From TrEMBL:
Protein's recorded name: Uncharacterized protein
Source organism of the structure: Prevotella histicola F0411
Lineage top rank: taxon: Bacteria
Lineage per the UniProt record: Bacteria, Pseudomonadati, Bacteroidota, Bacteroidia, Bacteroidales
């Protein structure tokens, strides 16, 4: 009996292994949305007309909203064909202005190209989704476009509740990821067989994905599962924990379970990570550096020291920065009472920030760095009290009560506080270039890296890197792209444009033979003010 049980258990184990091996792996891809799909769709629409009568006689382009008709420059589209007919068919007019305003607002908030956001998608009434996809499927079967490059699908509508968003993905983009690997799968709640969850990407593919969603066009990025467009990626989680959310539609629970088995069978083992240099930071250490800044702004020149105290290390580093000996000067150009008052307040704010210390957080996958005040609640309360004191003082002395904006009724005092808010959000960091620069390349480069191109948060753009070695150790050089590039549509005759074509940020990191960071040189030109700085390790 024992022998029979043993044979059966071996048989079951072998059967399970065979089933697992026979499961078709799930293919996960990531592609950018085509920057401007309108000409492509117009071409497909024209070529479809001889083949589509068994589906509909209506041209493909006529399923798109009035906003896109304007893009296509359909000057022969009369009022009855566009506006009135559209309202009769859909019960409402397309919210063209609302779409443009919402797209522009979201793009501006994200620091993205407004024009790109307005033209990357096509609106389709939800009732017409099936017809549009049938037409596009027919176009694919008839090879009416480059099917090896483009794929179509309906994406997530983040701006309009009453529209479906048709997007074209560019599979041949130089940033595309046709096949991504993942090391773990987490399943969440499922409904009617459909499955949601998250994948943990390999370190290498997470870096590729970061490079993809920072593509120069700033286009959205979609996940594709087994050749079907599924979901825009969550840009926030990738640099933090390499996790990507997914959703897969299934007909029933059985199909959903089969998909999960295929997904589990597609998990790979994380290849060993071999960094170019050892980590600079260990919890419990204190590193001391000195920085000398030379800037167009005479109020931030000079020398001071700062201490770095690591609080957490890993994929994400959190380091406390304690700035010492910073001499905050009053700028010499402040001539008016308004400027002097603003500068006085900025000095007070910066000194209070220095008392609270700073927390630098960076991802070694991306070099993406953020800076925050250590005791944010305490500083916020202090700042709230400062603004109350200012308002009371100005009201008592009738200073800065002149209305500067008749439309908004804004006074000089309100304008001062607005600019002070901006100073806290960004301007204060002008004093402290070390906060962004010091740990940006930490664990970013891998063994064997020599030269290349990638996105660097420190540069705020794509740039090139080169790595060299000599008797003193290792040198890493980063060089950003100019603010205005050669192929940008600009007025080349404008001297200011020519100047922007030469403004390039550059950094050099010097490590000793043991891999310790000893010096950083920075030249910042893509900014309101030019500044050079040198950071040197003291101990």
């Amino acid at each position: 009996m024992k022998r029979i049980i043993f044979v059966l258990s071996v048989f079951v184990s072998c059967l399970q292994l065979t089933i697992a091996q026979s499961l078709k792996p799930v293919q996960i891809s990531f592609y950018p949305v085509l920057h401007d799909p309108h000409e492509l769709l117009k071409s497909i629409s024209d070529k479809l007309l001889p083949y589509q009568k068994h589906i509909t006689t209506r041209p493909l382009e006529k399923y798109f909203g009035r906003f896109n008709d304007e893009i296509y420059n359909n000057e022969d589209a009369g009022e009855a064909d566009s506006t009135a007919a559209f309202k009769k068919r859909f019960g409402t007019l397309p919210d063209t202005e609302g779409y443009v305003a919402a797209a522009a607002a979201e793009a501006t908030d994200n620091g993205e190209d407004v024009a790109a956001t307005q033209t990357s998608y096509v609106q389709v009434n939800p009732q017409d989704e099936n017809t549009v996809m049938k037409l596009l499927k027919l176009a694919r079967e008839k090879q009416l476009y480059d099917t090896s490059r483009y794929m179509f699908g309906f994406g997530l509508n983040r701006m309009m509740d009453d529209w479906s968003i048709l997007c074209a993905l560019d599979k041949k983009s130089p940033y595309a990821i046709p096949s991504a690997s993942f090391t773990a799968v987490h399943k969440e709640e499922s409904s009617d067989g459909s499955v949601t969850g998250s994948l943990r990407l390999t370190r290498q593919d997470a870096k590729r994905l970061v490079r993809l969603y920072n593509n120069p066009q700033k286009d959205d990025v979609y996940m594709v599962i087994d050749g079907e467009l599924r979901w825009p990626i969550d840009k926030e989680n990738v640099p933090v924990n390499r996790r990507i959310s997914f959703w897969q539609e299934a007909k029933n629970v059985s199909d959903g379970n089969l998909f999960m088995k295929r997904l589990q069978a597609s998990v790979v083992k994380e290849p060993p990570y071999k960094p170019l240099l050892p980590s600079q930071y260990r919890v419990g250490d204190t590193l001391i550096y000195r920085i000398k800044v030379d800037s167009d702004m005479d109020w931030i020149t000079g020398t001071h020291t700062f201490k770095l105290v690591p609080l957490a290390v890993g994929d994400v580093y959190r380091i406390e920065c304690i700035v010492e000996g910073l001499d905050v000067k009053q700028p010499s150009w402040a001539s008016s009472a308004y400027d002097r008052e603003l500068n006085n307040l900025e000095v007070k704010v910066l000194k209070q920030m220095l008392k609270q210390h700073f927390i630098i957080e960076t991802s070694n996958l991306t070099g993406e760095t953020s800076v925050e005040i250590k005791d944010k609640n305490q500083f916020d309360q202090w700042y709230k009290n400062l603004k109350k004191w200012c308002e009371a003082s100005w009201k008592r002395d009738k200073r800065f009560s002149k209305v500067t904006d008749e439309t908004m009724g804004t006074t000089e005092g309100e304008s001062l506080l607005f600019h002070l808010d901006e100073f806290i959000d960004d301007g204060a960091l002008q004093y402290l270039p070390e906060l962004d620069a010091i740990i940006a390349p930490e664990m970013y480069f891998e063994e064997g890296d020599t030269t290349g191109r990638g996105y660097f948060d420190l540069l705020g753009d794509y740039g090139t890197y080169s790595i060299s070695k000599n008797e003193q150790g290792t040198i890493i050089s980063l060089k950003g792209d100019p603010e205005v590039k050669e192929d940008d549509l600009v007025d080349d005759s404008d001297p200011a444009i020519q100047d922007l074509k030469t403004k390039i940020d550059a950094y050099e990191y010097y490590y000793d033979t043991k891999g310790n960071l000893m010096k950083v040189k920075g030249k910042v030109r893509r900014n309101l003010y030019n500044k050079d700085f040198v950071i040197e390790r003291m101990m």
